[in-house]
C-alpha cells in the first residue's frame, strides 16, 4: 500500500481548496491517508452511489447497469465543486458517510487525498490501466506513489474562429504563432472588430498560456516547493500580453461565451475564442453561425519553443474514503472512461469536453461538423493539441488562491496599472508567503 504523508502530498502536486479548509472536515486518517485495509470485491451484487454535477450521468450509468447485474450505479446530482459540491462531499466523508464515487476537478484531487478523503486506486489495480489514458491526463491525478482519481475529461486548448469573416471578408488566416496573433489582432482591430475578447479576472487563462509556453511555476524539490513565475517561458508570455494590452487591440470588457460575446459573435464583431476543446458545444450556440466557423490549433511560440497547447478545465472521478466497494468502483470507472460505450455515452448525455482515453475520442467526434464548416476538427486539430502538452506542469496546493491572485493582477494589467512582468513577480512573492503560512517549505526561484 502506498503511503501518502502530508508533506509528500503537498510536495507532489496541487489543487483548488486550501489545506486549512480541508483539514476542518477531514475524515479519520493517519498522516493524510485512509488506513483501512484493501477491501476485496464482494461476492454479492452491490450498488454504488455517485455524486456528480454532470447532466444526465445516470443515463451513462444505466448502460453499464444494463449489461450486467453484479454492479449497479446510482447518481445523485450535486452543485459544481466550488459552488458547494466539494463542501458537501467532504462534510459527508468527515461524518463517516458520503458516496462511493465523487466528481472532482483534477487540480483538486491532491487536496482531497491530503485530507484523507480518497482511496488510493493503485491499491485496487488501477495502475495497470494507466497506459489507457493520455499522459497529460493521468499525470494530473497522481500524488506520491498513488493514483487518486480516474481522469474523466479535460480541455486541450485550440482556436475557434469565424472563418467567413476572418478569411473571406478580411482575407486573413487564423494565426499559427503568437507573433501572427499580434499582427492579426491589430488588423482586425483596425477593421472595427475584435479578434478575441478576454475577461482579465479569469486567472486560469494566463495559466494555460504559461503552461503552453513551457513554464513550471510550482516545482517540488526535496521536502518543499520552488515557485518560479518569472522564468523565461513566463516572461515570454508576460511581455507579449503587456504589449497586447498596451496597444488595446483586443476587447477586455467581457469573456468568451458570455451573453455580450454571443451578441458580438452573431454580428461578426468578435471573431475567435482561444478556449478548451469543450468550447465547441458552447460556440455552436452562436446565432446564425452554422457553416461559418472553423477550428485551428492554439498559436505557438515558434519552432522548438514551448508546446502545442495548454489545458483549460478538467474533471475526474474519485473513490471516496468511506466506500465499502472500491474494487467495484474502479471496475465501473475504468469502463466508463476507457470503453467506447462509456465514452460515447458521456459525450451524448453529459457533454464531456474531451475524452481522457489515449486511443478513443468518441464516435461522434470522428464525424465532420456542419457548424464548423464541414471540418473534422476533432481528429485534425484537437488530437494534436491533446498530445502536445507540457507534462512537467504541476498544480500547486492552493490553486484557487493562485487563480484569484492572477485574475486580480490581470485586471490591473488590462487597465494599465501594473505590467504583467511585475505582476508575475509580485504574485510569486505573495504565493510563497501564503504557502509558508500553510506550513509548507516554499522558496522563490533564484
UniProtKB/TrEMBL annotation:
Protein name in the entry: Multiple sugar transport system substrate-binding protein
Coiled coil: none
SUPFAM superfamilies found in the cross-reference section: Periplasmic binding protein-like II
Organism: Brachybacterium sacelli
Keywords of this entry: Cell membrane, Lipoprotein, Membrane, Palmitate, Signal, Sugar transport, Transport
InterPro entries: Bact_solute-bd_prot1, SBP, TAT_signal
Endpoints of the signal sequence: 1-23
Transmembrane portions of the chain: none
Amino acid at each position: 500500500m502506498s503511503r501518502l504523508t502530508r508533506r509528500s502530498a503537498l510536495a507532489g502536486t496541487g489543487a483548488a481548496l486550501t489545506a486549512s479548509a480541508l483539514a476542518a472536515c477531514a475524515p479519520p486518517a493517519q498522516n493524510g491517508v485512509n488506513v483501512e485495509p484493501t477491501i476485496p470485491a464482494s461476492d454479492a451484487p452491490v450498488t454504488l452511489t455517485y455524486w456528480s454535477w454532470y447532466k444526465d450521468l445516470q443515463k451513462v450509468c444505466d448502460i453499464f447497469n444494463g449489461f450486467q447485474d453484479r454492479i449497479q450505479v446510482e447518481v445523485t446530482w450535486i452543485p459544481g465543486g466550488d459552488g458547494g459540491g466539494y463542501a458537501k462531499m467532504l462534510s459527508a466523508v468527515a461524518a463517516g458517510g458520503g458516496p462511493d464515487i465523487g466528481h472532482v476537478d483534477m487540480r483538486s484531487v491532491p487536496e482531497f487525498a491530503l485530507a484523507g478523503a480518497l482511496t488510493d486506486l493503485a491499491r485496487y489495480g488501477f495502475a495497470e490501466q494507466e497506459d489507457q489514458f493520455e499522459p497529460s491526463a493521468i499525470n494530473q491525478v497522481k500524488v506520491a506513489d498513488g493514483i487518486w482519481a480516474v481522469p474523466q475529461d479535460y480541455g486541450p486548448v485550440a482556436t475557434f474562429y469565424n472563418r467567413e469573416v476572418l478569411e473571406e471578408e478580411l482575407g486573413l488566416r487564423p494565426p499559427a504563432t503568437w507573433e501572427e496573433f499580434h499582427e492579426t489582432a491589430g488588423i482586425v482591430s483596425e477593421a472595427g472588430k475584435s479578434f478575441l475578447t478576454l475577461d482579465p479576472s479569469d486567472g486560469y487563462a494566463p495559466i494555460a498560456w504559461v503552461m503552453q509556453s513551457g513554464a513550471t511555476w510550482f516545482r517540488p524539490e526535496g521536502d518543499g516547493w520552488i515557485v518560479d513565475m518569472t522564468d523565461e517561458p513566463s516572461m515570454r508570455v508576460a511581455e507579449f500580453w503587456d504589449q497586447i494590452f498596451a496597444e488595446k487591440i483586443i476587447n477586455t470588457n467581457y469573456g468568451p461565451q458570455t451573453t455580450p460575446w454571443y451578441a458580438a459573435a452573431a454580428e461578426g464583431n468578435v471573431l475567435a475564442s482561444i478556449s478548451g476543446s469543450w468550447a465547441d458545444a458552447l460556440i455552436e450556440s452562436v446565432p446564425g453561425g452554422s457553416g461559418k466557423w472553423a477550428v485551428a490549433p492554439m498559436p505557438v511560440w515558434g519552432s522548438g519553443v514551448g508546446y502545442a497547447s495548454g489545458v483549460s478545465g478538467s474533471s475526474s472521478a474519485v473513490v471516496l474514503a468511506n466506500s465499502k466497494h472500491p474494487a467495484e468502483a474502479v471496475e465501473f470507472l475504468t469502463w466508463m472512461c476507457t470503453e467506447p460505450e462509456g465514452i460515447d455515452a458521456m459525450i451524448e448525455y453529459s457533454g464531456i469536453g474531451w475524452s481522457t482515453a489515449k486511443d478513443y475520442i468518441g464516435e461522434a467526434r470522428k464525424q465532420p461538423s456542419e457548424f464548423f464548416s464541414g471540418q473534422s476538427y476533432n481528429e485534425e486539430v484537437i488530437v494534436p493539441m491533446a498530445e502536445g502538452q507540457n507534462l512537467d506542469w504541476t498544480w500547486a496546493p492552493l490553486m484557487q488562491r493562485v487563480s484569484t491572485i492572477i485574475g486580480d493582477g490581470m485586471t490591473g494589467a488590462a487597465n494599465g496599472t501594473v505590467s504583467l512582468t511585475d505582476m508575475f513577480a509580485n504574485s510569486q512573492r505573495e504565493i510563497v508567503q501564503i504557502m509558508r503560512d500553510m506550513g509548507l517549505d516554499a522558496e522563490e526561484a533564484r
